[in-house]
Specification:
The protein is an alpha/beta fold. It contains 7 helices and 10 strands. The chain has a 6-stranded mixed beta sheet with strand order 6-7-8-3-9-10, sandwiched between helices. Strands 2-1-4-5 form a 4-stranded antiparallel beta sheet, with helices on one face. The two termini are about 30 Å apart. The structure holds adenosine-5'-diphosphate (ADP) (2 copies). One adenosine-5'-diphosphate (ADP) binds next to loops. This is ABC-type quaternary amine transporter. Its EC number is 7.6.2.9.
Length: about 230
């Protein structure tokens, strides 16, 4: 069955309609890319699914639960999801290890078991030697790998990516998108990934949804969307 189901999602900022009745299904374990120009509502939709934004109308179901509707607003930390942002959003005063461990602490996992999971996750993204460093001591690509490790270590059911590669140069973007694809599929998490880069969408997506001015204009498999 479908893992995330969005129906009739609408959101206004004053007189601006950022989302105009969005329907979107994310199949369990699928990788969906939300593609569209700047200002089309991609971040608003993603933040609504994350629960950091409240909808004006419509519903969002997550597995068997209603997480957003007129009466319901499940808090972000209760949604079993993780986010990866364009600006990495690491805690500057925490080491790499502590940044990743933070995701487990929120899930009440501590002690040796947590320590082992953090270290093996950092090895997995090639940063085992950097676990005692601070974010400002790392390159942009390394920081985004820490953010990826932090997102995945807690084994979320859903991972939301908001233009995670936009601040990186072209070579690194290609390299990191492979890592994102591999790691996300290994965890079995459902993924929703925002980009305005068609080649990125083509490389990553099982499913593509094209957003324009708050409306889903086109939707289908990557092959069917990019054949034309
Ligand atoms: P995208 O992610 O596709 O660039 P956004 O979801 O960020 O688009 O924005 C959609 C529209 O809503 C844009 O016109 C943007 O300026 C507006 N918007 C987004 N967030 C806010 C906000 N907090 N207050 C007012 N307008 C906003
Ligand atoms: P993105 O880089 O994903 O397009 P933006 O730069 O559009 O993101 O938005 C960054 C932040 O600013 C978001 O929290 C968004 O809600 C807010 N924002 C975007 N557009 C507006 C706006 N027109 N007025 C107020 N806040 C906005």
């Amino acid at each position: 069955g479908h893992h995330v189901i969005v129906r009739g999602a609408s959101k206004r900022y004053g007189s601006l309609e950022a989302l105009c009745g969005i329907d979107l299904d994310l199949a369990a374990g699928s990788f969906t890319v939300l593609l569209g120009p700047s200002g089309s509502g991609k971040s608003t939709l993603l933040r609504s699914i994350a629960g950091v934004e409240k909808l004006d109308g419509g519903t969002i179901h997550f597995g068997p639960r209603t997480i957003s509707d007129r009466q319901t607003h499940v808090k972000p930390e209760k949604r079993a999801l993780a986010m990866v942002f364009q600006d990495y959003a690491l805690w500057p005063h925490l080491t790499v290890r502590q940044n990743v461990a933070y995701a487990l602490r929120r899930r009440r996992l501590g002690g040796q078991e947590a320590g082992r999971r953090v270290e093996s996750m950092l090895e997995r993204v090639g940063l085992g030697a950097k676990s005692g460093s601070y974010p400002h001591e790392l390159s942009g690509g390394q920081q985004q790998r820490v953010a990826l490790a932090r997102a995945i270590v807690g084994e979320p059911e859903l991972i939301l990516f908001d233009e995670p590669l936009s601040n990186l140069d072209a070579d690194l973007r290609e390299h990191l998108r492979l890592e994102i694809a591999t790691l996300t599929r290994e965890t079995g998490a459902t993924a929703l990934y925002i980009t305005h880069d068609q080649s990125e969408a083509f490389a990553l997506a099982d499913e593509v949804a094209i957003l324009n001015a708050g409306v889903i204009e086109q939707r289908g498999s990557a092959e069917s969307i990019f054949r034309h």
